[in-house]
Design a protein that fits this description.
A mainly alpha (177), B mainly alpha (498), C alpha/beta (331), B: mainly alpha, two-stranded antiparallel sheet, 23 helices, C: 331 residues, D-Maltodextrin-Binding Protein, domain 2, 6-stranded mixed sheet, 12 helices, 40% helix, globular
C-alpha cells in the first residue's frame, strides 16, 4: 500500500488531521447546498452557477483528501497540545478575540496598549514595566501613522481623542493668529 | 517642441520635483503597511490638495502610486504579509528568502526589477498609448473570462505537495470571493441570512489573515528561538545578476503593461499571471519556485510596476480608468477643472506628457529610496520574535480594521488566520485561496456576461471565441497551459525535479 | 488608568482654556460616502466638502464605506449618535432599499442637509450601432429581437429605471448584459461588448464629445445646455413626458434627531458651498443639474422621487415588496 502511494503520503496522519479534513468535507457539502439555494439550475448565467461549480469541485477534492487521510498511518510521535495547538497559539488567538471585543467599548488606545503589554509580557517574559514601555512606543507609532497622518478613525471608546486633537489643533491656530 | 517642454515641467520645477520625491517616499511606506492602500492615500490627497494647482496635486499622487506599488513587496518579503494585493505573488518566494537570511538581497533585486518594470510601462504609455488603449477596450467579456481562467491555472504551480489540496484551496477562494450581495443581480450568495455578510468578506482581511496571522501563529511554535541573522552584504545586486533576469523581466513587464491597461484588471492580477509565466519559461531555476526563486520575485515585481504605466493608458487616451487608483485620479482631474476623456489628449496634450515625465521621475526616486534604507528595514526581522510578533499582530488587526472601519473585518481576519493556520499544519497550500479570491469576480462576472451575450448557448460562445483572433489566442493558451499542467504531467515533472 | 486620567485632565484643561470648543463643530466630523472612491457620488462629495468646511470652520474627514448597494455606509451613520459628527454623502439608492428588500432604513430616517444635484439620464449607443435615434433603435429592435445588447447595472439602478420607463411605453425584446456600475458598462460599450446603455450624462459626456459613443436620446424634458444638439426623448416620443424629469441625485444627510442648530449650521454651510464658482463649474461640466435643496423642499423632492421610482420599478416586476407596504403613495 505505502509504496504505491505518491510521495508525501507516506507520512503518518497528524493529530487532528482526520477531524479537520472531515470538517472540510462537511463544510463543502454545506456550501454546495447553500450554492444550490442561490438560484438552483435556473440558467448558465444565474448568480448561483459559478458558486455551484466551485463548491462541487471543493466537495470532490475534500472527498479525495479525506479518503487519502484515512489510508495514512495512525502511529505518530506528534501530540495535539504540543505540535498543533501549543499554549502560545491558544493564548494569542484568545488575545486577538479579546481585542476585537474590547475595541468598540474601550477604544483603540487602551485596547492596543493592553493587548501589546500582555502579549509581550507573556511571550517574551519581559518585566511588566519593560513590556508596557515597548507597547506604549508601538501604539504611539501606529496611532500617529493611522490616525493622524492617514485620518483613519479608530473607535475612540473611553478616550476623548477627537476632542484632544481638536484642542491641540486649536492651540496651533491660536498661536498662528 | 511642446512635448519636450511638457516633459520638462516636473524636472525644472523644484517644487514639483520635491513633491514627486516626497510622494514616492511616502508611497513606499503606504504600500508596505497592510491596511494602508494607495487607493486610500490618493483619496485623502484629493481633499488635501484641493486648493492646489493641478500639476502639484497630480505630481504628489503619482509619487504615492509608484512608490506604493513597489512598497507592497517590503512586508511581503520580510513578514509574509503583502502590503498590497499586488505583492501577493512576491511573498511566495520573497518570504522563503528572508527565512534563509537573504531578505536584503531579495529587496535589492525587487527594487531594481521594479524600476525596470516601471520604466517599460512608462515607455509603453509614451509610445503606444492610443494603440494599446484600443486593444485594451476591445477585450470582450469572454476574453476577460479566459484571462481569469489563465490566472486560475496558476494553482498548478502554487500547490506544493498536493494538487488536490491546491484545487480545493483555489475553489474555496473563488467561493469566498462570491460571498455577499452579487453586484450584478443583487442576489445574496453565501450570506446565510445575515446582513453582516451582505457586503462580502473584505479581501484585505482574508489576505492579512491567511498570510500574516497564520504565519504569526506558526512562528509561535518556535517563539523563543533566535531570529535568522540577515546577510546584508549583497543588497545592491550585481550587474551580471540583473542582466540574467532582463529577458524574463522584459516579458513579464509586457504582460504587466497590457493587463494594467485593461480596464477591470490591475497590478494584482498582472503580478499573478506574470508569476505563472515565470514558472513556465524558467526551465531550471537555481532554487525551486516557492522556496526562494529569484525569478519568482522578478516576474511579479516587474509586472505590477509596469501595470502602473499601463493603467494610465486608457485613462489618458479615453478617460477610462485602468484600475482603482486611476479612477480616483480621473475624479481629481475633474475637481481641478479638467475633463479626462477622449478629448484630453487633444485639449490638454501637456497633461499627458507631464504625467509621463512625472511617472518617470517617480520611478527614478523609487529606485533611489528603495535601495537606501534596506539595512534598517531588514533589521526589523532580527528583533526578538516575542516582541516582533505582537507588533505584527497589532498592525495586522489595525490594517484589517482600517479598510472599512469595521470590527467584523477583524473577526474575519482572525477566522481566516486560524483557518489558514490549520490548513498549513495539514499540508494545504494557502496561495491558491488568495488567487481564487482575487480572480473570483473577474471569472464569475465575465462568465455570466459572456454566456448572456451569447443567448445562454455554449455552442454560440465557442463559435464567437473561434471567430475572434484575440479570443482564439487566449483560448489556445488556456488549453495549452491546462494540458501542460494535468496531474499526470505534473507528477512526472515534479518527480524529476525533486 | 493613569493615561486615562491624564487625558481627562488635559481635556478638562483644554475645555476650560478654550470655551469656544463647546460650539459645533468641536471636533472632526466623520463624512461617510456610500459609494467607492472615484465614482460620481465620491467626486461630488469631495468637491463640495472643502468649500463647506471653510464656511463651517471645522474638518470633515471623508471615508468611503461601500457595499450592499450603499446600505453599509447608510447603516453606519444611522447607528452613530445623532450629534452631527457623522454625516452621510448618499445617492438616490436608499429610497429603494425597502421595496428592493435591501434594508429597512431609508432617507426617512435622516434629515436632508442638502440635495446637491441631479443627473440627467441619456441613452447612448456604440458608434457602430445601426441606428442613430430612439425611433430608429425601436424599429431595429423590433426587426431583430434579442440581437441588441443593453447594458444594465442591477435592479433599481438608473439603467433599470430608464429601461422600465421605455418598457412601460414601448416593450423591447433585447438582451441585458449586467455590469457593476455605469463606468464599466460604458467601457464595454466603447469596446462593442454591448450596443446600448442608459447612463447618466455625466459619465457619458466626455465619450460623446470625443466621438467614442453616440447619443440616442436625452431622457429629459428640455435639451441639456452641455449637449444642445442631442434630441430629448420627448421631442420624438412625447408619451414619456409624464415620467420626466427624473434622475439620480446626490445629497448630504444627518440622522434624525440631530439638534436643530447643528442641522442649521450644516445646511447653511453646504448651501453656501454649492454656490462656489469652482463647484458650480464642476457640476455643469459633468452634465449635472444643480438643485441645492434643503428643508421642506428637500423632503418633498425625496418623497416625490421615491413614489415615482418605487412604483415604476414595482410595475416592472423588479421589487421584492410592494411600495404600498411601506406607505409609499402611488403618484
Amino acid at each position: 500500500m505505502q509504496t504505491k502511494q505518491p510521495k508525501g503520503l507516506g507520512q503518518p496522519r497528524r493529530p487532528g488531521e482526520l477531524v479537520f479534513n472531515l470538517l472540510m468535507v462537511l463544510g463543502s457539502l454545506y456550501l454546495l447546498w447553500s450554492a444550490y439555494g442561490i438560484s438552483g439550475f435556473e440558467a448558465l448565467s444565474a448568480p448561483g452557477a459559478v458558486p455551484m461549480v466551485t463548491t462541487a469541485v471543493m466537495l470532490l477534492c475534500t472527498g479525495l483528501i479525506f479518503l487519502e487521510t484515512l489510508r495514512k498511518s495512525k502511529i505518530t510521535a506528534e501530540k495535539l497540545e504540543r505540535d498543533i495547538l501549543p499554549m502560545p497559539v491558544i493564548v494569542t488567538i484568545l488575545a486577538i478575540t479579546g481585542y476585537a471585543l474590547a475595541l468598540k467599548p474601550l477604544g483603540f488606545l487602551p485596547t492596543s496598549f493592553l493587548f501589546l503589554t500582555g502579549l509581550i509580557r507573556y511571550l517574551a517574559k519581559y518585566s511588566l514595566a519593560r513590556s508596557a514601555l515597548l507597547a506604549l512606543l508601538m501604539v504611539a507609532g501606529i496611532y500617529l501613522l493611522f490616525r493622524i497622518v492617514f485620518t483613519v478613525l479608530m473607535p475612540p471608546g473611553i478616550v476623548p481623542e477627537a476632542e484632544v486633537i481638536a484642542w491641540v489643533k486649536s492651540l496651533f491656530v491660536a498661536r498662528g493668529n | 517642441m511642446d512635448v519636450i517642454n511638457a516633459l520638462l515641467i516636473p524636472i525644472l520645477d523644484l517644487k514639483l520635483l520635491g513633491l514627486i520625491g516626497l510622494g514616492t517616499f511616502a508611497g513606499i511606506y503606504v504600500g508596505a503597511i497592510p491596511g494602508l492602500s494607495v487607493t486610500m492615500a490618493v483619496s485623502i490627497l484629493i481633499s488635501f490638495t484641493f486648493s492646489w494647482a493641478v500639476y502639484p496635486a497630480i505630481a504628489l499622487m503619482i509619487g504615492i502610486y509608484m512608490g506604493g506599488v513597489y512598497g507592497g513587496s517590503r512586508t511581503a518579503i520580510l513578514l509574509n504579509i503583502p502590503g498590497a494585493p499586488s505583492a501577493i505573488a512576491t511573498a511566495m518566494d520573497g518570504f522563503p528568502m528572508a527565512k534563509k537570511g537573504l531578505a536584503g538581497e531579495a529587496i535589492g533585486i525587487v527594487t531594481v526589477v521594479s524600476f525596470l518594470g516601471g520604466f517599460i510601462g512608462i515607455l509603453a504609455l509614451a509610445i503606444f498609448a492610443p494603440l494599446l488603449a484600443d486593444f485594451a477596450i476591445s477585450f470582450q467579456p469572454r476574453d476577460y473570462m479566459m484571462l481569469a481562467v489563465l490566472g486560475i491555472l496558476l494553482v498548478g504551480s502554487l500547490s506544493e505537495g498536493s494538487l488536490v489540496k491546491g484545487i480545493f484551496a483555489g475553489a474555496l477562494g473563488i467561493a469566498i470571493g462570491a460571498v455577499g450581495m452579487d453586484p450584478l443581480t443583487y442576489t445574496e450568495r453565501f450570506t446565510f441570512g445575515t446582513s453582516g455578510l451582505r457586503s462580502g468578506v473584505s479581501f484585505v482581511a482574508v489576505m492579512i489573515g491567511m498570510f500574516g496571522i497564520s504565519e504569526g501563529l506558526m512562528q509561535l511554535h518556535t517563539v523563543n528561538t533566535a531570529a535568522v541573522k540577515q546577510k546584508i552584504s549583497s543588497i545592491i545586486p550585481s550587474w551580471s545578476q540583473v542582466r540574467k533576469h532582463i529577458p524574463l523581466g522584459m516579458q513579464t513587464s509586457s504582460i504587466g503593461t497590457v493587463i494594467g491597461a485593461l480596464p477591470g484588471t490591475g497590478g494584482d492580477i498582472a503580478a499573478l499571471i506574470a508569476y505563472d509565466h515565470a514558472t513556465r519559461v524558467t526551465k531550471n531555476p537555481e532554487v525551486p519556485f516557492g522556496q526562494g526563486a529569484i525569478e519568482g520575485l522578478v516576474a511579479p515585481e516587474t509586472a505590477n510596476n509596469a501595470a502602473v504605466g499601463g493603467a494610465f493608458i486608457p485613462m489618458l487616451t479615453l478617460g477610462i480608468p485602468g484600475d482603482a487608483v486611476t479612477a480616483i485620479m480621473i475624479g481629481a482631474l475633474f475637481i481641478h477643472g479638467l475633463n479626462p476623456g477622449p478629448m484630453l489628449m487633444v485639449d490638454q496634450p501637456n497633461m499627458f506628457w507631464f504625467i509621463v515625465s512625472a511617472l518617470a521621475l517617480a520611478n527614478c526616486f523609487m529606485l533611489i529610496f528603495g535601495l537606501t534604507g534596506i539595512r534598517v528595514f531588514v533589521k526589523i526581522v532580527e528583533l526578538p520574535r516575542a516582541v516582533l510578533l505582537p507588533a505584527i499582530l497589532l498592525l495586522s488587526i489595525v490594517g484589517a480594521y482600517a479598510v472599512n472601519n469595521s470590527v467584523n473585518d477583524v473577526y474575519w481576519m482572525l477566522g481566516f488566520g486560524v483557518f489558514g493556520y490549520f490548513m498549513k499544519l495539514y499540508g494545504y497550500p494557502l496561495g491558491p485561496v488568495i488567487l481564487g479570491v482575487i480572480l473570483s469576480r473577474l471569472l464569475d462576472d465575465n462568465w455570466r456576461r459572456a454566456i448572456i451575450s451569447d443567448q445562454e448557448s455554449l455552442w454560440m460562445l465557442l463559435k464567437g471565441t473561434l471567430a475572434s483572433p484575440l479570443s482564439l489566442v487566449l483560448f489556445v493558451s488556456v488549453i495549452l497551459i491546462f494540458v501542460s499542467k494535468t496531474p499526470l504531467w505534473g507528477m512526472i515533472f515534479r518527480k524529476r525535479t525533486a | 488608568m493613569l493615561m486615562k486620567s491624564v487625558i481627562g485632565a488635559l481635556v478638562a484643561l483644554g475645555l476650560g482654556v478654550v470655551p469656544a470648543l463647546a460650539e459645533y463643530p468641536a471636533k472632526e466630523i466623520k463624512g461617510i460616502i456610500q459609494w467607492g472612491a472615484g465614482g460620481s457620488t465620491d467626486t461630488v462629495a469631495r468637491a463640495i466638502t472643502p468649500h463647506a468646511q471653510a464656511v463651517l470652520g471645522g474638518t470633515i474627514v471623508m471615508q468611503n464605506v461601500t457595499g450592499g448597494v450603499g446600505a453599509i455606509g447608510l447603516n453606519q451613520v444611522a447607528n452613530d449618535a445623532a450629534d452631527g459628527y457623522s454625516i452621510l454623502f448618499g445617492a438616490e439608492n436608499p429610497l429603494l432599499y425597502k421595496v428592493m428588500g435591501l434594508g429597512d432604513k431609508d432617507y426617512s430616517d435622516f434629515v436632508p442637509v442638502n440635495i446637491i444635484a441631479r443627473g440627467v439620464p441619456i441613452l447612448v449607443a456604440n458608434v457602430d450601432a445601426p441606428f442613430n435615434t430612439f425611433p430608429e433603435m425601436v424599429a431595429y429592435i423590433n426587426a431583430n429581437p434579442k440581437a441588441v445588447k443593453f447594458g444594465s447595472t442591477g435592479p433599481g439602478g438608473l439603467p433599470s429605471v430608464v429601461t422600465a420607463m421605455i418598457n412601460s411605453k414601448t416593450p423591447l425584446d433585447v438582451t441585458f448584459v449586467p455590469y457593476d456600475g455605469d463606468g464599466p458598462a460604458l467601457t464595454a460599450l466603447q469596446g462593442k461588448a454591448i450596443d446600448v446603455m442608459p447612463a447618466v450624462l455625466g459619465a457619458a459626456i466626455e465619450g460623446i464629445r470625443g466621438g467614442t459613443m453616440k447619443p440616442l436620446a436625452m431622457f429629459d424634458i428640455e435639451p441639456s445646455p452641455q449637449l444642445p444638439d442631442v434630441p430629448t426623448i420627448v421631442s420624438t416620443n412625447p408619451e414619456f413626458a409624464e415620467m420626466l424629469p427624473w434622475g439620480p441625485f446626490f445629497g448630504v444627510f444627518v440622522k434624525n434627531g440631530t439638534p436643530d442648530d447643528v442641522v442649521a449650521k450644516l445646511t447653511a454651510a453646504y448651501a453656501e458651498a454649492a454656490t462656489h464658482p469652482d463647484f458650480v463649474a464642476l457640476i455643469d461640466g459633468r452634465g449635472f443639474k444643480m438643485l441645492s435643496l434643503a428643508g421642506a423642499e428637500a423632503e418633498e423632492f425625496l418623497t416625490g422621487w421615491q413614489s415615482t421610482t418605487s412604483w415604476l420599478i414595482h410595475e416592472a416586476g423588479m421589487t421584492k415588496a410592494s411600495p404600498e407596504d411601506f406607505g409609499i403613495v402611488k403618484p
